[in-house]
Write a structure and sequence with these properties.
Radius of gyration of chain A: 23 Å
Number of helices of chain A: 3
Strand order of the largest sheet of chain B: 2-5-3-4
Order of helices and strands of chain B: HEEHEHEHE
CATH topology of the largest domain in chain B: 60s Ribosomal Protein L30, Chain: A
Oligomer: heterodimer
Number of domains of chain B: 2
Structural class of chain A: mainly beta
Helix content of chain B: 25-40%
Number of helices of chain B: 4
Structural class of chain B: alpha+beta
CATH class of the largest domain in chain A: Mainly Beta
Largest interface: A-B, 103 and 76 residues
CATH superfamily of the largest domain in chain B: OmpA-like domain
Strand order of the largest sheet of chain A: 1-2-31-30-29-28
CATH architecture of the largest domain in chain B: 2-Layer Sandwich
Radius of gyration of chain B: 27 Å
Strand content of chain A: over 45%
CATH architecture of the largest domain in chain A: 6 Propeller
Number of strands of chain B: 5
Distance between the termini of chain B: 58 Å
CATH class of the largest domain in chain B: Alpha Beta
Chain lengths: ~425, ~190
C-alpha cells in the first residue's frame, strides 16, 4: 500500500537579527507521495519540568517532522494519540497496539540548572513491549534543537538500519535584490531542515559552487567579488578564509577529496577548461584531465580513486570517469544529449546528474554498473543535485526558484524547502 | 502552527549564539548503553569572536564599472557593445563582425586602452558548464580581435556563465538576450 501524505508546515524562523545579513527565512516542508511499508510510529509530547510553563522547544513535534519528512515513517497525527505517557511506567501498551502503532517514542525533559537541561527518551516496540532505545541526554539550551535531531537520527537508525541525517547541515547560494534591484549574493548554511539559515559570505558579485569539506567544518566556493572567478575555502565558524585559485580564466567547480586533503578544480589557465587536483597542504597543482574540449564539474568517488566530470569531447556534454592518477577517461553516460553536474552517492554505486530530455532539465540517477538512468526529480528546470550523506535522498535546486527540492533516490518521496530570498540555488549537503 | 512560530524563536536564540559541544549521553535509568554518533557541533561559540563579519557586509552596488570608451553615435559600429549568440553556440554571428572589427581597430590605434570581454549564457543547464560556455563566447570575440592585430595585454576575458542575466524568465526572448558577450572598456 502506498501512503499518501500531504502536509505543509510553515514555520517563521530566524526572527532574531543577530547579523544584519540574517533576515528571517521561511521553512516550508511539503511531503507528497510516500513509500511502501512506511513504519508506523507514535511520538508522544515530551513531559516538561522547568521554571517556565512552556518548554523551550517542542521536542516531540520536531522528531515527528523529521521522521515524516524522511518518507520512511507513517507518523500517528498528534490529535490521534490515545495517551501522553512521559515515563515508561505509564505506558499502557494495549492502547497503542489497538491503533496498530508498532513503535512508540516517549520522553521528558527538565531544566536542572539555569540553562542546563536533562532529556530522557525511550523508543519502545509496542507489540513485544521491549525498550529498543533509552537515553538520558544533558544539554544546554543552545544544544536542545541539535540534540532533538540526534534523537531523530537514533530512532531512524534503529528502525531503518540506515544512518539518520537530521543533525547535518546544508549550504546554498541565494540571490536577493535591494530596493534598486541590484543583486546581493549570499552563501548560507542551515540545518538540514532549513532552520537557522545564516550567511557566511555576502557579495554584490556572483557566488557559486559551494562544497563541504568531509569534516563539515570548511566550505569551498567560487566568488566573483574581484570581477573574476576565484576559489576560496572558508572555515564556517571562524570566518577565516583562504584563496585557493585565482588564475586567469576559469577558477571553478571545487570538489573535496573524501580524505579532505585535496580539491579537484576546473581551471582554464592553460587554454581551455581542464580538471586539476590541488593539494591543500603543499598547494601543488596537477592537471588530471587534459583535452581540447570543455572538462568541468569534477566529483570524487567515495574511495578517492576516481573522478567523474562533465565533458563535451564527444560533441555534447556527458559524464566521464577518470583515475585520480590521470590516464584515459571513460564515458559513463549514454542516454540523451545532455548529462552534467554529477555527484557520487555515498556508496559509490550511482551518480546523480542533470539530464536533458525533450528540452527539459531533470534530476536523474545513473547506476554505474547497470548503466540504468532514472529520472527522479519532478521539475523541468532542475539543477545542482547533491546526495544526502546517507544516500537516501537527493537535494537539488529548481532554476530561478525560491525552493530547494529533495527526492528519495527511488523517486517516490518529494519535499520542498522554501528559502527566503528571490532565488536559491546550488545546495550542498554536508557529509556529516 | 503558531506553536512552531513561538518555538522557532527559542530555537534561534539557541542556534545563533550556540555554544555547542557534543552532548554527553548517559543511559536513561541505566539501561543498556548504546553508542551514539558524535554530533559535529564544533565551536559554534567561536561565532562570538569570529572574524567573518566583514565577509557578510553588504557593500554599495558599484554602478560604474569600467570607463566610457570610444564615443559613438547610435547606429555606428562602435556603439555596439553587446554581441548575441545562438543556443549552445560560441560562434560569432556575421552580423557582429563589423562592430567587433571597429572595436579592434579602436584598440589598435589606442594601445593604452584595455577591455574586458564578459561572456554570459542563458539559464538552461548546469551552472559550471555554462561558465565554460560563457568563456568560449568571450574567447571567440577575443580571437577575432587578436587576429586583427589587437595586443594580448589589451584584452582580458571573464565568464559569468548564467550568473548575471539581463533578462529574466525562461521565455526564448529572455534566454536569447542573456546569451551574450559584453565589451567593457577598462581605461
Amino acid at each position: 500500500m502506498i501512503k499518501q501524505h500531504s502536509r505543509t508546515l510553515k514555520l517563521l524562523g530566524c526572527l532574531l537579527i543577530l547579523w544584519s545579513t540574517t533576515a528571517y527565512s521561511e521553512l516550508n516542508i511539503q511531503i507528497t507521495g510516500g513509500v511502501e511499508g512506511a513504519i508506523p510510529i507514535a511520538i508522544a509530547p515530551f513531559g516538561w519540568e522547568g521554571n517556565t510553563s512552556n518548554p523551550p522547544l517542542d521536542v516531540a513535534s520536531i522528531i515527528r517532522t523529521d521522521l515524516e519528512r524522511s518518507g520512511r515513517f507513517n507518523v500517528l497525527p498528534v490529535n490521534n494519540l490515545p495517551a501522553v505517557p512521559t515515563d515508561p511506567s505509564l505506558i499502557k501498551f494495549s492502547q497503542w497496539q489497538a491503533l496498530g502503532q508498532e513503535n512508540l517514542v516517549i520522553g521528558r525533559f527538565q531544566e536542572t540548572f539555569p540553562n542546563r537541561f536533562d532529556t530522557a527518551f525511550y523508543l519502545f516496540d509496542v507489540f513485544s513491549q521491549k525498550r529498543l532505545i533509552g537515553y538520558r541526554i544533558p544539554s544546554s539550551k543552545d544544544d536542545l534543537r541539535r540534540m532533538t535531531h540526534q534523537i531523530s537520527d537514533m530512532v531512524y537508525e534503529k528502525l531503518t538500519g540506515e544512518k539518520g541525517v537530521f543533525a547535518t547541515h546544508i549550504a546554498y547560494v541565494t540571490l536577493s535584490r535591494d530596493s534598486n534591484r541590484h543583486p546581493i549574493y549570499r552563501l548560507q548554511i542551515a540545518d538540514a531542515d532549513g532552520y537557522g539559515a545564516r550567511s557566511i559570505v555576502a557579495s554584490r558579485q556572483p557566488i557559486m559552487s559551494p562544497t563541504w569539506s568531509p569534516d563539515g567544518k570548511t566550505v569551498a566556493y567560487v566568488s566573483f567579488e574581484h570581477r573574476r572567478s576565484e576559489i576560496f575555502t572558508q572555515d564556517i565558524w571562524a570566518g577565516k578564509r583562504t584563496s585557493i585559485a585565482s588564475f586567469p580564466g576559469i577558477n571553478g567547480a571545487p570538489a573535496w577529496s573524501p580524505d579532505g586533503s585535496k580539491l579537484a578544480l576546473t581551471l582554464s589557465k592553460d587554454g581551455n577548461p581542464d580538471i586539476y587536483i590541488f593539494d591543500i597542504k603543499t598547494r601543488q597543482l596537477h592537471r588530471i584531465v587534459k583535452h581540447y574540449a570543455v572538462d568541468t564539474e569534477p566529483a570524487w568517488s567515495p574511495d578517492g580513486q576516481t573522478l567523474v566530470f562533465t565533458s563535451d569531447r564527444g560533441g555534447s556534454p556527458q559524464i566521464y570517469r577518470v583515475s585520480v592518477n590521470g590516464g584515459s577517461a571513460k564515458r559513463v553516460s549514454f542516454q540523451g544529449g545532455y548529462n552534467a553536474s554529477a555527484d557520487f552517492s555515498p556508496d559509490g554505486k550511482m551518480i546523480s546528474l542533470v539530464h536533458r530530455q525533450s528540452g527539459k532539465y531533470h534530476i536523474a540517477t545513473l547506476d554505474l554498473s547497470s548503466k540504468q538512468l532514472n529520472v527522479i526529480g519532478k521539475g523541468t528546470q532542475d539543477e545542482s543535485p547533491t546526495f544526502a550523506p546517507n544516500g537516501s535522498m537527493v537535494l537539488y535546486a529548481t532554476n530561478g526558484g525560491t525552493q530547494l527540492a529533495a527526492v528519495s533516490v527511488d523517486g517516490r518521496v518529494h519535499q520542498t524547502l522554501t528559502i527566503n530570498a528571490d532565488e536559491v540555488r546550488e545546495p550542498a549537503w554536508a557529509s556529516n | 502552527m503558531n506553536l512552531f512560530r513561538l518555538f522557532s524563536l527559542f530555537i534561534l536564540i539557541g542556534l545563533f549564539s550556540a555554544c555547542s559541544s557534543t552532548p554527553e549521553k548517559n543511559d536513561a535509568d541505566n539501561l543498556g548503553a548504546l553508542s551514539v554518533p558524535d554530533a559535529n557541533t564544533q565551536g559554534l561559540s567561536e561565532l562570538d569572536r569570529l572574524d567573518g563579519s566583514q565577509l557578510t557586509e553588504i557593500l554599495p552596488y558599484e554602478d560604474n564599472y569600467g570607463v566610457q570608451g570610444p564615443a559613438a553615435e547610435p547606429g555606428e559600429p562602435l556603439s555596439v557593445r553587446v554581441f548575441y549568440f545562438d543556443f549552445d553556440s560560441s560562434q560569432v554571428r556575421p552580423a557582429d563582425y563589423e562592430a567587433i572589427n571597429a572595436h579592434a581597430d579602436y584598440l589598435i590605434s589606442n594601445p593604452d586602452s584595455r577591455i574586458s570581454l564578459e561572456g554570459h549564457t542563458d539559464s538552461l543547464g548546469s551552472r559550471e558548464y555554462n561558465i565554460a560556455l560563457g568563456e568560449q563566447r568571450a574567447k571567440s570575440v577575443a580571437k577575432m580581435m587578436r587576429l586583427r592585430g589587437v595586443a594580448d595585454r589589451q584584452i582580458q576575458t571573464v565568464s559569468y556563465g548564467e550568473e548575471k542575466p539581463v533578462a529574466f524568465g525562461n521565455a526564448e526572448y529572455a534566454l536569447s538576450q542573456n546569451r551574450r558577450v559584453e565589451i567593457i572598456y577598462l581605461r
